[in-house]
Structure formats: structure tokens, C-alpha cells
Amino acid sequence: MTHSIVHLLGVPFAIVAGTGAGVFALLSWGIFRNSPFGTAIALLSLGMVALTIYHTILLVTGPEPLALHVLRSAVNTIVAIFLGLLVLRHRQLHQHRPRGEPSWTD
Predict the structure, then answer these.
(1) pLDDT per residue over 53-83, tens digit each?
(2) Global pTM exceeds 0.90
(3) Who contacts 46 (Cβ-Cβ below 8 Å, separation ≥6)?
(4) CA distances in angstroms from 36 to 18, 23, 55, 101, 105, listed in the order given
(5) Are 52 and 19 in contact (CB under 8 A)?
């Protein structure tokens, strides 16, 4: 598969942008570790790293290797767990709310 210069420049850009986003997500997790959404931020960080690896491999090799299908499946699983944890945390926070306190959904 032949690559244009723009295509080849996208690989280091994807690595740098994904690494920067992952570092910022980990720093955010360090700040919000004890908050209700600390676990969700940690899972989001893992998902961002997996997506960076997936897109870099996709740019280098093309769309068909088996490793990309496995990585895509892992990323989709992480996203599903992330959304499930957000729903559970929302329900926990809603149950432990004092009775007189207003809610965003009321």
C-alpha cells in the first residue's frame, strides 16, 4: 500500500495528540480520584490510549489485520463499561440525595 506524505505525517500527529490527551486524562484522574466520577475518568483514559493505538495501527497497516478487530472489540467493551459505570454512579448519587435538595431532573 503506497502512502502519501500527508498520510505519513498523520501517524506522528496521531501519536502525539493521543499521548497528550492521555496524559491530560491521567492528570484529571489524579485530581478527581476521590470524586464520584474518578473511575469513569480512569476508564476514559484507558479508552483514549486504546483508540490512539488503534488509529495508529490503522494508518500504518490498513484496515484488515486481525489485531485491529481485537483492539476495536476491546475499545468497545471499555466504552460499554464506562457508560455502565456512569449510569450506576448517577443512580447511587440520586438515591443518597437528601429529600429537600433540588435535582437537575425535577
Answers:
(1) 777 777 777 766 787 788 778 878 888 888 8
(2) no
(3) 78
(4) 25, 20, 30, 18, 18
(5) yes
